UniProtKB/TrEMBL annotation:
The keyword Transferase applies. It holds the Pfam family Methyltransf_12. The keyword Transmembrane helix does not apply. This is Methyltransferase domain-containing protein. Keywords: Methyltransferase, Transferase. One of its GO terms (molecular function) is methyltransferase activity. GO terms for biological process: methylation. Residues 61-156 form the Methyltransferase type domain.
Amino acid sequence: MQDATDAQLAAQYEALPYPARDPRDEAKRLVVGSPSHLAEVDHWVFGARRPAGQPLRALIAGGGTGDGAIMLAQQLAWASRPGEVTWLDRSAAARKVAEARAATRGLTNLRFVEGSILAPPALGPFDYIDCCGVLHHLPDPLAGLKNLSTLLAPGGGMGIMVYAPHGRTGVYMLQDALRLIAPPEETPAARVDIAKRVMRHLPETAWLRKNPWITDHLPLPQGGGDPGLYDLLLNPRDVSFTVPQLDTLVRDAGLRITCLVEPVRYDPDLLLPDPRLRARTAGMSMIERAALAEALAGNMGIHIAYLARAEDPPATPDWNDLAAIPILRGQDGAGWAKGIRNGALPITYDGLRINLPMPPLAAAILARIDGKASLAEIARAVEAGGANPTAVARDMAALRAAMEPTNRLLLSAPPAA
Protein backbone atom coordinates (compact mmCIF):
# COMPACT_ATOMS: atom_id res chain seq x y z
CA MET A 1 0.00 0.00 0.00
CA GLN A 2 3.01 2.29 -0.22
CA ASP A 3 2.98 5.15 -2.72
CA ALA A 4 5.20 8.12 -3.57
CA THR A 5 3.69 10.15 -0.73
CA ASP A 6 4.38 7.35 1.71
CA ALA A 7 8.03 7.34 0.65
CA GLN A 8 8.17 11.07 1.35
CA LEU A 9 6.68 10.46 4.79
CA ALA A 10 9.31 7.83 5.55
CA ALA A 11 12.07 10.24 4.52
CA GLN A 12 10.55 12.97 6.66
CA TYR A 13 10.64 10.96 9.88
CA GLU A 14 14.18 9.74 9.23
CA ALA A 15 15.40 13.30 8.71
CA LEU A 16 13.28 14.84 11.46
CA PRO A 17 12.23 12.29 14.12
CA TYR A 18 8.99 13.40 15.71
CA PRO A 19 8.31 14.76 18.22
CA ALA A 20 11.61 16.49 19.02
CA ARG A 21 12.93 14.95 22.24
CA ASP A 22 16.27 15.08 24.09
CA PRO A 23 16.95 11.91 26.13
CA ARG A 24 18.73 14.05 28.73
CA ASP A 25 15.38 15.63 29.62
CA GLU A 26 14.15 12.31 31.02
CA ALA A 27 15.92 13.18 34.27
CA LYS A 28 13.70 16.27 34.58
CA ARG A 29 10.21 15.07 33.68
CA LEU A 30 7.97 12.38 32.25
CA VAL A 31 5.93 13.47 29.23
CA VAL A 32 2.34 12.49 30.00
CA GLY A 33 -0.87 12.81 28.03
CA SER A 34 -3.69 10.96 26.32
CA PRO A 35 -4.25 8.33 25.13
CA SER A 36 -2.40 5.58 27.03
CA HIS A 37 -2.01 7.16 30.45
CA LEU A 38 -2.18 4.08 32.69
CA ALA A 39 -5.01 5.50 34.80
CA GLU A 40 -7.07 6.11 31.65
CA VAL A 41 -6.39 2.64 30.28
CA ASP A 42 -7.50 1.07 33.55
CA HIS A 43 -10.67 3.18 33.68
CA TRP A 44 -11.86 3.78 30.12
CA VAL A 45 -10.60 0.59 28.45
CA PHE A 46 -11.05 -2.01 31.19
CA GLY A 47 -13.74 -0.36 33.30
CA ALA A 48 -11.51 -0.51 36.40
CA ARG A 49 -12.17 -4.25 36.51
CA ARG A 50 -8.87 -5.72 35.26
CA PRO A 51 -6.66 -6.60 38.26
CA ALA A 52 -3.46 -4.61 38.58
CA GLY A 53 -1.53 -7.86 39.04
CA GLN A 54 -2.54 -9.18 35.64
CA PRO A 55 0.29 -8.57 33.12
CA LEU A 56 -0.53 -5.89 30.57
CA ARG A 57 0.66 -6.50 27.01
CA ALA A 58 0.64 -3.16 25.20
CA LEU A 59 1.56 -2.11 21.66
CA ILE A 60 2.44 1.47 20.76
CA ALA A 61 1.88 1.42 17.00
CA GLY A 62 3.72 4.30 15.37
CA GLY A 63 5.79 4.97 18.48
CA GLY A 64 7.88 7.82 17.09
CA THR A 65 10.44 9.17 19.52
CA GLY A 66 8.71 7.38 22.35
CA ASP A 67 6.27 9.58 24.27
CA GLY A 68 3.48 7.02 24.61
CA ALA A 69 5.73 4.02 25.08
CA ILE A 70 7.94 5.71 27.66
CA MET A 71 4.94 7.05 29.59
CA LEU A 72 3.13 3.73 29.82
CA ALA A 73 6.24 1.66 30.55
CA GLN A 74 7.36 4.08 33.26
CA GLN A 75 3.93 4.17 34.90
CA LEU A 76 3.84 0.37 34.98
CA ALA A 77 7.33 0.32 36.50
CA TRP A 78 6.52 2.94 39.14
CA ALA A 79 3.43 0.94 40.15
CA SER A 80 5.44 -2.34 40.16
CA ARG A 81 2.89 -3.79 37.76
CA PRO A 82 3.79 -6.64 35.42
CA GLY A 83 3.66 -6.33 31.66
CA GLU A 84 5.54 -5.28 28.56
CA VAL A 85 5.20 -2.33 26.20
CA THR A 86 6.16 -2.90 22.56
CA TRP A 87 7.25 0.11 20.51
CA LEU A 88 6.56 -0.31 16.78
CA ASP A 89 7.66 2.16 14.12
CA ARG A 90 9.50 2.06 10.81
CA SER A 91 11.80 5.01 11.60
CA ALA A 92 15.28 3.96 12.67
CA ALA A 93 16.05 7.56 13.62
CA ALA A 94 13.00 7.74 15.91
CA ARG A 95 13.91 4.37 17.42
CA LYS A 96 17.37 5.67 18.32
CA VAL A 97 15.84 8.54 20.29
CA ALA A 98 13.22 6.36 21.98
CA GLU A 99 15.79 3.74 22.98
CA ALA A 100 18.05 6.41 24.45
CA ARG A 101 15.14 7.77 26.49
CA ALA A 102 14.29 4.29 27.78
CA ALA A 103 17.95 3.66 28.65
CA THR A 104 18.14 6.92 30.60
CA ARG A 105 15.21 5.73 32.70
CA GLY A 106 16.51 2.19 33.03
CA LEU A 107 13.27 0.72 31.74
CA THR A 108 13.35 -3.05 31.27
CA ASN A 109 9.67 -3.56 30.35
CA LEU A 110 9.96 -1.95 26.91
CA ARG A 111 11.00 -3.60 23.66
CA PHE A 112 11.55 -2.11 20.22
CA VAL A 113 10.42 -3.53 16.88
CA GLU A 114 10.82 -1.80 13.51
CA GLY A 115 7.92 -2.22 11.13
CA SER A 116 4.78 -0.66 9.67
CA ILE A 117 1.19 -1.05 10.79
CA LEU A 118 0.27 -1.44 7.11
CA ALA A 119 2.24 -4.70 7.13
CA PRO A 120 2.76 -5.43 10.83
CA PRO A 121 5.27 -8.07 11.88
CA ALA A 122 4.09 -11.18 13.70
CA LEU A 123 3.23 -9.69 17.09
CA GLY A 124 0.63 -10.01 19.80
CA PRO A 125 -1.91 -10.52 20.89
CA PHE A 126 -2.08 -7.32 22.91
CA ASP A 127 -4.45 -6.29 25.68
CA TYR A 128 -4.07 -2.65 24.71
CA ILE A 129 -2.97 -0.93 21.49
CA ASP A 130 -2.07 2.74 21.11
CA CYS A 131 -2.13 4.40 17.67
CA CYS A 132 -1.56 8.09 18.26
CA GLY A 133 -1.04 10.52 15.40
CA VAL A 134 -0.60 7.83 12.75
CA LEU A 135 -3.88 6.97 11.01
CA HIS A 136 -4.27 10.45 9.50
CA HIS A 137 -0.96 10.03 7.63
CA LEU A 138 -1.67 6.61 6.12
CA PRO A 139 -2.61 6.00 2.47
CA ASP A 140 -5.45 3.83 3.81
CA PRO A 141 -6.42 4.63 7.44
CA LEU A 142 -9.09 1.94 7.45
CA ALA A 143 -6.63 -0.77 6.44
CA GLY A 144 -4.26 0.35 9.16
CA LEU A 145 -6.95 0.30 11.84
CA LYS A 146 -8.21 -3.10 10.69
CA ASN A 147 -4.66 -4.49 10.85
CA LEU A 148 -4.29 -3.31 14.42
CA SER A 149 -7.67 -4.73 15.46
CA THR A 150 -6.48 -8.20 14.46
CA LEU A 151 -3.71 -7.91 17.06
CA LEU A 152 -6.13 -7.31 19.95
CA ALA A 153 -6.51 -10.00 22.59
CA PRO A 154 -10.05 -10.94 23.65
CA GLY A 155 -11.49 -8.14 25.76
CA GLY A 156 -8.73 -5.77 24.69
CA GLY A 157 -9.06 -2.15 23.65
CA MET A 158 -7.37 0.65 21.79
CA GLY A 159 -6.51 4.31 22.25
CA ILE A 160 -6.17 6.47 19.14
CA MET A 161 -5.59 10.10 18.23
CA VAL A 162 -6.42 11.68 14.88
CA TYR A 163 -6.49 15.24 13.63
CA ALA A 164 -9.76 17.19 13.72
CA PRO A 165 -10.49 19.95 11.19
CA HIS A 166 -12.08 22.86 13.07
CA GLY A 167 -9.30 23.43 15.60
CA ARG A 168 -6.70 23.27 12.81
CA THR A 169 -8.06 26.34 11.06
CA GLY A 170 -5.22 27.94 9.14
CA VAL A 171 -3.09 24.81 8.94
CA TYR A 172 -4.41 23.51 5.64
CA MET A 173 -4.25 26.92 3.98
CA LEU A 174 -0.54 27.16 4.79
CA GLN A 175 0.01 23.58 3.69
CA ASP A 176 -1.41 24.59 0.29
CA ALA A 177 0.87 27.63 0.14
CA LEU A 178 3.99 25.70 1.10
CA ARG A 179 3.31 22.95 -1.45
CA LEU A 180 3.60 25.67 -4.09
CA ILE A 181 6.73 27.36 -2.82
CA ALA A 182 8.43 24.34 -1.19
CA PRO A 183 7.38 21.29 -3.26
CA PRO A 184 7.34 17.89 -1.53
CA GLU A 185 9.95 16.59 -3.96
CA GLU A 186 12.62 18.77 -2.31
CA THR A 187 14.64 17.55 0.67
CA PRO A 188 13.20 18.00 4.19
CA ALA A 189 16.05 20.40 5.08
CA ALA A 190 15.36 22.63 2.07
CA ARG A 191 11.62 22.66 2.74
CA VAL A 192 12.11 23.57 6.40
CA ASP A 193 14.33 26.49 5.42
CA ILE A 194 11.73 27.84 3.00
CA ALA A 195 8.90 27.32 5.51
CA LYS A 196 10.78 29.30 8.17
CA ARG A 197 11.31 32.13 5.72
CA VAL A 198 7.61 32.13 4.86
CA MET A 199 6.63 32.16 8.54
CA ARG A 200 8.76 35.25 9.14
CA HIS A 201 6.69 37.10 6.54
CA LEU A 202 3.28 35.56 7.25
CA PRO A 203 0.58 38.21 6.76
CA GLU A 204 -1.44 39.36 9.74
CA THR A 205 -4.53 38.06 7.98
CA ALA A 206 -3.27 34.45 7.82
CA TRP A 207 -5.67 32.31 9.83
CA LEU A 208 -2.88 30.36 11.52
CA ARG A 209 -1.78 33.58 13.21
CA LYS A 210 -5.25 33.81 14.71
CA ASN A 211 -5.25 30.21 15.99
CA PRO A 212 -3.64 30.20 19.46
CA TRP A 213 -4.12 26.46 19.98
CA ILE A 214 -1.69 25.40 17.25
CA THR A 215 1.93 25.78 18.38
CA ASP A 216 3.86 22.88 16.84
CA HIS A 217 5.37 25.16 14.19
CA LEU A 218 6.97 27.44 16.79
CA PRO A 219 10.63 27.12 17.84
CA LEU A 220 11.58 25.04 20.85
CA PRO A 221 10.71 25.11 23.72
CA GLN A 222 7.42 26.91 23.01
CA GLY A 223 6.67 24.68 20.02
CA GLY A 224 7.93 21.60 18.26
CA GLY A 225 11.01 22.99 16.54
CA ASP A 226 11.91 21.86 13.02
CA PRO A 227 10.26 18.41 13.40
CA GLY A 228 7.06 20.07 14.61
CA LEU A 229 7.08 22.64 11.82
CA TYR A 230 7.55 19.95 9.19
CA ASP A 231 4.92 17.64 10.66
CA LEU A 232 2.34 20.42 10.90
CA LEU A 233 2.84 22.39 7.69
CA LEU A 234 4.95 20.28 5.31
CA ASN A 235 3.63 16.79 5.92
CA PRO A 236 2.87 15.24 2.52
CA ARG A 237 -0.30 13.52 3.78
CA ASP A 238 -2.56 14.98 6.47
CA VAL A 239 -6.22 13.97 6.72
CA SER A 240 -8.48 15.25 9.48
CA PHE A 241 -11.67 13.67 10.81
CA THR A 242 -14.84 15.18 12.21
CA VAL A 243 -16.52 13.11 14.92
CA PRO A 244 -18.97 11.47 12.46
CA GLN A 245 -16.12 10.68 10.06
CA LEU A 246 -14.09 9.16 12.88
CA ASP A 247 -17.10 7.12 13.99
CA THR A 248 -17.53 5.77 10.45
CA LEU A 249 -13.85 4.82 10.25
CA VAL A 250 -14.02 3.02 13.59
CA ARG A 251 -17.24 1.16 12.78
CA ASP A 252 -15.95 0.10 9.37
CA ALA A 253 -12.98 -1.46 11.18
CA GLY A 254 -15.33 -3.56 13.35
CA LEU A 255 -14.78 -1.40 16.41
CA ARG A 256 -16.77 1.15 18.39
CA ILE A 257 -15.94 4.33 20.28
CA THR A 258 -16.30 3.81 24.02
CA CYS A 259 -15.04 7.21 25.11
CA LEU A 260 -14.01 10.52 23.55
CA VAL A 261 -11.42 12.31 25.68
CA GLU A 262 -12.30 14.41 27.49
CA PRO A 263 -16.00 13.46 27.50
CA VAL A 264 -17.02 16.83 28.94
CA ARG A 265 -15.72 18.58 25.84
CA TYR A 266 -18.19 16.63 23.72
CA ASP A 267 -21.24 17.56 25.83
CA PRO A 268 -23.20 20.27 23.98
CA ASP A 269 -25.40 20.96 27.01
CA LEU A 270 -22.49 22.70 28.75
CA LEU A 271 -22.36 25.08 25.79
CA LEU A 272 -26.14 25.49 25.42
CA PRO A 273 -27.81 26.34 28.74
CA ASP A 274 -31.08 27.32 27.05
CA PRO A 275 -33.72 24.70 28.08
CA ARG A 276 -35.34 24.76 24.65
CA LEU A 277 -32.00 23.93 23.05
CA ARG A 278 -31.30 21.19 25.56
CA ALA A 279 -34.68 19.69 24.77
CA ARG A 280 -33.42 19.21 21.22
CA THR A 281 -30.06 17.71 22.24
CA ALA A 282 -31.73 15.25 24.60
CA GLY A 283 -32.81 12.97 21.75
CA MET A 284 -29.43 12.92 20.04
CA SER A 285 -27.08 9.94 20.01
CA MET A 286 -23.63 10.14 21.61
CA ILE A 287 -22.03 10.77 18.21
CA GLU A 288 -24.59 13.41 17.23
CA ARG A 289 -24.09 15.22 20.53
CA ALA A 290 -20.32 15.06 20.15
CA ALA A 291 -20.54 16.35 16.57
CA LEU A 292 -22.67 19.27 17.72
CA ALA A 293 -20.21 20.17 20.49
CA GLU A 294 -17.30 19.90 18.06
CA ALA A 295 -18.93 22.26 15.57
CA LEU A 296 -20.00 24.73 18.26
CA ALA A 297 -16.68 24.92 20.13
CA GLY A 298 -14.49 25.16 17.04
CA ASN A 299 -11.28 24.58 19.04
CA MET A 300 -10.73 20.83 18.71
CA GLY A 301 -7.58 20.17 16.73
CA ILE A 302 -7.48 16.48 17.57
CA HIS A 303 -9.81 13.72 18.64
CA ILE A 304 -8.67 11.18 21.21
CA ALA A 305 -10.81 8.07 21.51
CA TYR A 306 -10.77 4.76 23.30
CA LEU A 307 -12.13 1.86 21.28
CA ALA A 308 -13.40 -1.67 21.81
CA ARG A 309 -14.49 -4.41 19.46
CA ALA A 310 -18.04 -3.79 18.31
CA GLU A 311 -19.22 -7.15 19.63
CA ASP A 312 -17.59 -6.89 23.07
CA PRO A 313 -19.81 -5.95 26.03
CA PRO A 314 -19.15 -2.50 27.51
CA ALA A 315 -16.54 -2.38 30.28
CA THR A 316 -18.19 0.25 32.47
CA PRO A 317 -16.59 1.43 35.73
CA ASP A 318 -18.75 0.46 38.71
CA TRP A 319 -19.11 3.50 40.94
CA ASN A 320 -21.59 1.55 43.09
CA ASP A 321 -18.79 -0.75 44.23
CA LEU A 322 -17.92 0.86 47.57
CA ALA A 323 -14.64 -1.07 47.67
CA ALA A 324 -13.47 0.72 44.50
CA ILE A 325 -10.63 3.21 44.91
CA PRO A 326 -10.99 6.60 43.17
CA ILE A 327 -7.96 8.50 41.90
CA LEU A 328 -7.41 12.03 40.69
CA ARG A 329 -5.47 13.21 37.64
CA GLY A 330 -3.83 16.60 37.32
CA GLN A 331 -3.42 17.53 40.97
CA ASP A 332 -4.31 16.28 44.43
CA GLY A 333 -7.72 16.55 46.00
CA ALA A 334 -6.84 19.58 48.10
CA GLY A 335 -5.68 21.38 44.96
CA TRP A 336 -8.90 20.66 43.13
CA ALA A 337 -10.92 21.70 46.19
CA LYS A 338 -9.17 25.08 46.31
CA GLY A 339 -10.30 25.73 42.75
CA ILE A 340 -14.01 25.63 43.64
CA ARG A 341 -15.58 29.09 43.49
CA ASN A 342 -19.22 29.89 44.18
CA GLY A 343 -20.26 26.27 43.86
CA ALA A 344 -18.46 25.64 40.57
CA LEU A 345 -15.08 24.34 39.41
CA PRO A 346 -13.78 26.18 36.31
CA ILE A 347 -11.78 24.09 33.83
CA THR A 348 -10.37 25.45 30.58
CA TYR A 349 -9.84 23.42 27.41
CA ASP A 350 -8.00 25.24 24.61
CA GLY A 351 -9.46 28.58 25.57
CA LEU A 352 -12.95 27.25 26.29
CA ARG A 353 -13.90 27.78 29.94
CA ILE A 354 -16.34 25.29 31.41
CA ASN A 355 -17.85 25.83 34.87
CA LEU A 356 -18.67 22.50 36.47
CA PRO A 357 -21.37 22.66 39.15
CA MET A 358 -19.99 21.27 42.42
CA PRO A 359 -22.12 19.81 45.24
CA PRO A 360 -21.81 21.33 48.74
CA LEU A 361 -19.56 18.55 50.07
CA ALA A 362 -17.28 18.46 47.02
CA ALA A 363 -14.27 20.02 48.80
CA ALA A 364 -14.55 17.65 51.74
CA ILE A 365 -14.77 14.63 49.43
CA LEU A 366 -11.96 15.72 47.13
CA ALA A 367 -9.61 16.36 50.05
CA ARG A 368 -9.95 12.70 51.06
CA ILE A 369 -9.24 11.15 47.66
CA ASP A 370 -5.63 9.97 47.92
CA GLY A 371 -5.54 6.93 45.61
CA LYS A 372 -5.61 4.58 48.61
CA ALA A 373 -8.97 5.13 50.32
CA SER A 374 -12.02 3.32 48.96
CA LEU A 375 -15.32 5.01 48.21
CA ALA A 376 -16.69 3.59 51.46
CA GLU A 377 -13.75 4.87 53.48
CA ILE A 378 -14.04 8.33 51.96
CA ALA A 379 -17.75 8.43 52.75
CA ARG A 380 -17.13 7.42 56.37
CA ALA A 381 -14.43 10.06 56.76
CA VAL A 382 -16.71 12.82 55.46
CA GLU A 383 -19.52 11.59 57.72
CA ALA A 384 -17.12 11.65 60.68
CA GLY A 385 -16.69 15.35 59.99
CA GLY A 386 -20.36 15.87 60.76
CA ALA A 387 -22.02 15.40 57.37
CA ASN A 388 -25.32 13.57 57.00
CA PRO A 389 -24.88 10.11 55.36
CA THR A 390 -27.66 10.81 52.86
CA ALA A 391 -26.03 14.09 51.86
CA VAL A 392 -22.65 12.38 51.55
CA ALA A 393 -24.02 9.70 49.20
CA ARG A 394 -25.85 12.32 47.13
CA ASP A 395 -22.83 14.61 46.80
CA MET A 396 -20.40 11.79 46.04
CA ALA A 397 -22.63 10.77 43.13
CA ALA A 398 -22.92 14.38 41.97
CA LEU A 399 -19.15 14.90 42.17
CA ARG A 400 -18.52 11.77 40.13
CA ALA A 401 -21.07 12.84 37.51
CA ALA A 402 -19.32 16.21 37.19
CA MET A 403 -15.65 15.18 37.29
CA GLU A 404 -15.47 11.76 35.62
CA PRO A 405 -16.27 13.34 32.22
CA THR A 406 -13.34 15.74 32.73
CA ASN A 407 -11.00 12.71 32.86
CA ARG A 408 -9.84 14.00 36.26
CA LEU A 409 -11.70 11.59 38.55
CA LEU A 410 -11.32 7.90 37.69
CA LEU A 411 -11.42 4.50 39.34
CA SER A 412 -8.17 2.62 39.73
CA ALA A 413 -7.55 -0.96 38.72
CA PRO A 414 -8.51 -3.41 41.47
CA PRO A 415 -5.56 -4.76 43.43
CA ALA A 416 -3.91 -8.01 42.46
CA ALA A 417 -6.02 -11.04 43.24
